[in-house]
Design a protein that fits this description.
It is built from one helix and two strands, in the order αββ. By secondary structure, the protein is an alpha+beta fold.
Amino acid sequence: MAEHETDGTAGMTPDEKRRDQLLAAPDAVEADAAPRFDVTHPRDGVTRIDVRDDAPVRPGNPEEDPGPS
């Protein structure tokens, strides 16, 4: 069964769709669409997800001092 896209994203790659969605918000800037994670597959059946060093927002405890910027 073929899926029919009516939202204007037909023919777009997943990365293009992601960028398009992130930049659709009012006042969005290009930096909002910057990659924040690196996904690798070091061996069969294993997926590694790393937060990029240059990600503007990083996971962690919001109550802790994040250290020097």
